[in-house]
Every structure is written in C-alpha cells, then in structure tokens.
Amino acid sequence: MIIKHLKEHFFKELTKEEHLEKIKEGALPYNRLMSYYKCAIMEVETKFKVLNEQFSLKYDENPIETIKSRLKSPDSIMKKMKKKGIPMNTDAIEEHITDIAGIRIICSFEEDIYKMAKLLLQQDDVTLIEQKDYIASPKESGYRSLHLIVEVPIFLEDEKRPMKVEVQFRTIAMDFWASLEHKLRYKKDINPELMEQLAKDLTECAEQSADLDHRMEAIRKRIKKKK
Ligand code: 0O2
To answer: 21 or 222: whose pLDDT is higher?
Structure first.
C-alpha cells in the first residue's frame, strides 16, 4: 500500500504542462545565476574600457586592442561538472566553476598585459582569487596567456553580490596562436602519429610567435627612448 502510494506520488505520468512547469522550475535558478554572471562581465569590461580611455587621454596610447567576452555554454558547464564530479546544482556551479564569466583582454604588447592586470587588481572592489601566469611559464602545448580569477561585486536591486570572473590577457600574437591551435585541436579525424608531429610544429610556432612579440616590444622601447 505504501509502495503503491509512493509510486503514484513520484512516478505518476506528468502531463505536458506539468513537465514544462518542472523544466521551468529547474531553469529559473540557473538562468538567474547566468544573468548575474552577465552583469559581472559588464562590470569588468567597463573597468577595462575606462582604463583604456584614460591611457588614450593621458599617454596617447591604447594598450588594449580588443575585449572579447563570453558566458560558458550550458554544454561546457555540464562537461566540466561531470569531469570534476561536481553535483548538479547552482550553488556547486558557483563554487567550483570559476570560468563561467570569461573576458579576454587582447593587448598590443606583453608589457601592457602586466600593466593592465596590475591596474585591475589595485582597484578596491576587485579581489584576486587565483593567478596563472602561462607567459612566464608557458604550457607544454606552447600556450601563453595570463589568467586571473577575480571576484567583483554586482549591485542588484536589494543586494550586493560577489561574482567570479576569469580574465585572460593575451597579446595579439598569443591570441592568434591560441585561436588557431584551438580550432585545429578539435579536428578529430587525425591519426595519433600525425597529431604528435602537429603538436610539435604548433609548439614551435608558439615559440616563434613569442619571439616576434619580444622583437616588437624591443622596437617599441627603442622608439620610446628616442622621444
Ligand atoms: P573555453 O572554451 O576556452 O572556455 P580549470 O578551468 O581551472 O578547471 P585548467 O586546465 O586548470 O582548468 O585551466 P587553465 O589551463 O588555467 O585554463 C583553461 C583555459 O585556458 C581554456 O579554457 C582555454 O581557454 C585556455 N587554454 C589553456 N590551455 C590551452 C591550450 O593549450 N591551447 C589553447 N588554445 N587554449 C588553452 P577551456 O576550459 O578549454 O574552454
């Protein structure tokens, strides 16, 4: 009798409307959280736009070439949760996945990357959670970039909420390499032997591109000295 009651309660056939209602109930907290991340992206983007504007006025320089931002797709979030064994709820997503809000700052020169990162971190509403310097220590693939996970407040109607944002700083050359390597890495029909050769070639390209970055930076320094 009890089992029959439980079955009726939990496994009863849902009507189409009930089903949709259940999906909406589950989607609401997720959509709300994603909207908070969108606000956090706007906050951090504005900080960089302000810095670039100030540099343009004060020094006639634009250290930032481009700002790109993205919200991690539900599919990528799910994959990462499965990989890390994180339970499927919004609190766990917020606690364990730190790159849902992602901003990429493309700078002209390596020197500008560290300058921009320092200026961001010295703002009193920005807290550094984690820093990975793949410029000082490139990844085995050749990948170079400075990654910061920062926490910034967003101001809602009745609440101030800290949100995590991942900021990736790259030069144009670093971004060029990473974008192409990312595209090539997802070609699935390549045999392992060829893949190994290609990985070596790609690492070599990364080194050449880093060399180019350093030469351009040296030229810039010579021009500055002449002023
Ligand atoms: P997407 O699509 O870019 O968002 P974690 O994120 O902390 O769980 P991990 O591996 O410690 O995992 O993070 P890491 O290496 O600090 O940064 C991961 C992100 O850096 C990647 O995001 C890429 O954007 C970039 N990245 C890292 N290594 C490489 C590389 O070898 N080549 C390229 N092209 N990009 C790289 P995701 O998560 O892959 O996804």
So the answer is: 222
